[in-house]
């Protein structure tokens, strides 16, 4: 090999080679442009329902009933959004959803980080059996226990309260699994030396482990918040009054409040969609990393 | 926690291990208490209560009154309504699978090679996973509206997508497929990026064309993950509720009355909690079996 390198002469392209390379480059460019074109079309198809919702929410009520399709509104009726807030207590709904989703997220982070710490760093009898029991909860779909949960919460007098909306979701097997998976790559020596220095477990978790677990925290938060924000069936059953109604239920009830005002309903829908999409867009990277750290390794 | 201090400062490994285990074990469980309490109260307890209740006739507040053995189950399995519900669910799941996975796969393929703007496109393709099923269902209720909806206007048709039994199930399934395509895109993308790059290189040395590369390298490389995605999709499709309640409420007739919606109807409209519990158990059995499948393939992956 070394001899060959020495013999290399100054590299000069003859015309044929140059044109070959140029053709290759053009081919690549055409491919890329084609890819870009196809992707643009597919992207518009994916986005269509969302764009349609935004566009309809900005039309005047009269324009909605026109019989020909026009994506862009004739004039932007931003007042629809203000009207939507006037028709239904949207502000209260949004606040409720934020309270519920934030507390669920925090709860899942804390309970998940603690449980995963115990599973990964501490020794005990039956640890793996308990871990299996945790994962087994993934097999029980929430819809299969929803009847019992509803009756149980009714017996406790919890119906129509924040407790009912929040407490059942304060932990999740997925969260514990993601945290444990992340801790697996954590150098155990760091834990042992911290213990040598007399650092208690709880201090280790909050001062060393969690600050170093930002990717896992990011993924779990995004996932938990979006899921909690988008919940439908459970809040539908347990929140009966405007005081505790979440925004998904509140907006879906605008459906029946006033059948004339399609525009107001869609304005409501757009308002509901924005927070989860916003969080998804900022958190997408960490979400993807976290989701695939544990589940898919090839 | 203070109790641990002297033991842990002690550098004699043997002592620490022997005695530390005993001391630690209580602490170990302390960290598990928050999570396990929630699981116990809101998953395990209701789960066993559901099984228990499924053997009873209940009053309209859900309290078990008369023990009837397996009667709820035999009633269910022989009722044409539940049989219809099962058939509808399987049809629905099949359509959701084909559309959701097909679209996820297509978009993942489109983003497999880099090109300008790829990050924008992949964000958009993954986005449906963050969209609420109820919110987008309301958009579809307008989009599919016979008179003012965009679909009829664009296609120049006059179909009542949601009120025609032939179209209602397909319409709802299309929406769910759209919702699932986001996460499927991510899974397929991960799968594609795991296919061994060197295989493609040696293939292009051997002058294999793109189609053959796709057929003999890409597809086999995706075998395991595809099965995993399939199971995840089946499970999530079985659990759909919001979009169905908002778009069709199980109708027209019972043409979109999937299992979860039927549970909802039996429990919270007809107040037949025992029957709904038996139905929940059947749903659990189906989803449980599928989840076991999923864990198995996941273990194979690792």
Explain what this protein looks like in three dimensions.
The complex is a heterodimer of chains A (298) and B (302). With 298 residues, chain A is mainly α. Chain A is built from 15 helices and no strands. Chain B has 2 domains: 2-53, no CATH class; 73-301, MetI-like (MetI-like fold), CATH 1.10.3720. Chain B is built from 14 helices and 2 strands; from the N terminus they run ααββαααααααααααα. In chain B, strands 1-2 form a two-stranded antiparallel ribbon. In chain B, α3 (71-78) crosses α14 (273-301), α4 packs across α11 and α8 runs antiparallel to α11. The radius of gyration of chain B is 26 Å and the shape is globular. The two termini of chain B are 36 Å apart. The relative contact order of chain B is 0.12. At the A-B interface, α2, α5, α6, α7 and α12 of A face α1, α2, α4, α5 and α6 of B.
Notable traits:
heterodimer, A: 298 residues, mainly alpha, MetI-like fold, 73% helix, 0% strand, B: 302 residues, two-stranded antiparallel ribbon, 14 helices, 74% helix, globular, transmembrane (chain A), MetI-like_sf (chain A), sn-glycerol 3-phosphate transport system permease protein (chain A), transport (chain A), MetI-like (chain A)
Report a brief summary of the structure.
Chain A: One of its GO terms (biological process) is transmembrane transport. The complex is a heterodimer of chains A (298) and B (302). Chain A has a domain at 90-294: MetI-like (MetI-like fold).
Residue-averaged pLDDT of chain B, rounded? Answer: 83
Number of structural domains of chain B = 2
CATH architecture of the domain at 90-294 in chain A: Orthogonal Bundle
Give the fraction of residues assigned to helices of chain B: over 70%
CATH second-level architecture of the largest domain in chain B = Orthogonal Bundle
CATH class of the domain at 90-294 in chain A: Mainly Alpha
The CATH superfamily name of the largest domain in chain B is: MetI-like
> Radius of gyration of chain A over alpha carbons?
27 Å
Alpha-carbon Rg of chain B, integer: 26 Å
- Helices of chain B, by number, come to 14
| Strand order in space, largest sheet of chain B | 1-2
Outline type of chain B:
globular
What's the total count of β strands of chain B? 2
Uncertain regions spanning at least 5 consecutive residues of chain B: 1-22
CATH class of the largest domain in chain B: Mainly Alpha
Termini separation of chain B comes to 36 Å
Proportion of beta-strand residues of chain A: under 5%
Query: Which fold does the CATH topology of the largest domain in chain B refer to?
Result: MetI-like fold
Number of strands of chain A: 0
CATH homologous superfamily designation of the domain at 90-294 in chain A: MetI-like
């Amino acid at each position: 090999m070394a001899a060959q390198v020495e013999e290399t002469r100054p590299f000069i392209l003859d015309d044929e080679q140059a044109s070959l390379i140029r053709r290759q480059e053009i081919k690549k460019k055409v491919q890329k442009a084609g890819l870009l074109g196809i992707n643009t079309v597919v992207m518009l198809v994916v986005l269509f329902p969302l764009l349609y919702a935004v566009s309809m929410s900005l039309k005047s009520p009269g324009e909605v009933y026109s019989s020909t399709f026009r994506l862009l509104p004739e004039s932007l009726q931003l007042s629809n959004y203000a009207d939507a807030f006037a028709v239904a207590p949207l502000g209260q709904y949004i606040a409720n959803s934020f309270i519920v989703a934030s507390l669920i997220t925090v709860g899942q982070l804390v309970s998940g980080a603690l449980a995963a710490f115990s599973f990964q760093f501490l020794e005990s009898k039956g640890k793996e059996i308990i871990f299996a029991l945790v994962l087994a909860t993934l097999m029980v779909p929430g819809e299969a226990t929803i009847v019992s949960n509803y009756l149980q919460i009714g017996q406790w007098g919890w119906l129509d309260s924040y407790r009912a909306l929040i407490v059942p979701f304060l932990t999740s097997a997925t969260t514990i699994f993601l945290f444990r998976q992340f801790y697996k790559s954590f150098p155990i020596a760091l834990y042992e030396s911290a213990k040598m220095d007399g650092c208690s477990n709880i201090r280790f978790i909050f001062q060393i482990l969690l600050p170093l677990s930002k990717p896992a925290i990011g993924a779990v938060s995004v996932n938990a918040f979006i899921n909690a924000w988008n919940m439908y069936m459970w809040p539908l059953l347990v929140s009966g009054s405007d005081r505790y109604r979440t925004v998904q239920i509140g907006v879906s009830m605008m459906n029946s409040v006033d059948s004339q005002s399609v525009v107001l309903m869609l304005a409501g829908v757009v308002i509901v969609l924005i927070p989860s999409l916003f969080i998804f867009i900022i958190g997408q990277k960490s979400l993807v990393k976290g989701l695939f750290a544990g589940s898919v390794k090839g | 926690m203070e109790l641990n201090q002297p033991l842990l400062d002690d550098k004699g490994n043997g002592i620490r291990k022997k005695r530390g285990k005993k001391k630690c074990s209580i602490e170990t469980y302390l960290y598990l208490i928050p999570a396990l309490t929630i699981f116990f109260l809101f998953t395990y307890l209701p789960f066993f209560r559901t099984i228990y209740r499924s053997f009873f006739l209940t009053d309209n507040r859900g309290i078990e009154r008369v023990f009837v053995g397996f009667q709820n189950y035999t009633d269910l399995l022989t009722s044409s309504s539940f049989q219809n519900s099962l058939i509808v669910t399987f049809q629905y799941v099949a359509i959701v699978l084909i559309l959701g996975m097909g679209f996820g796969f297509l978009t993942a393929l489109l983003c497999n090679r880099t090109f300008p703007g790829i990050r924008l496109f992949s964000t958009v393709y993954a986005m449906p996973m963050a969209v609420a099923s109820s919110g987008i269902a309301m958009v579809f209720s307008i989009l599919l509206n016979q008179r003012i909806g965009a679909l009829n206007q664009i296609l120049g048709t006059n179909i009542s997508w949601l009120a025609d039994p032939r179209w209602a199930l397909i319409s709802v399934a299309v929406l769910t497929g759209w919702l699932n395509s986001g996460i499927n895109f991510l899974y397929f993308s991960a799968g594609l990026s795991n296919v061994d790059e060197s295989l493609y290189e040696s293939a292009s040395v051997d002058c294999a064309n793109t189609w053959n590369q796709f057929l003999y390298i890409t597809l086999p490389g995706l075998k395991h993950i595809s099965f995993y995605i399939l199971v995840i999709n089946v499970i999530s499709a079985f659990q759909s509720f919001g979009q169905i309640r908002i778009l069709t409420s199980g109708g027209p007739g019972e043409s979109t009355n999937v299992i979860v919606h039927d549970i909802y109807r039996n429990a919270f409209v007809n107040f037949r909690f025992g029957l709904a519990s038996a139905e929940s158990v059947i749903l659990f059995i189906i989803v449980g079996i599928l989840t076991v499948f999923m864990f198995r393939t996941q273990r194979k992956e690792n």
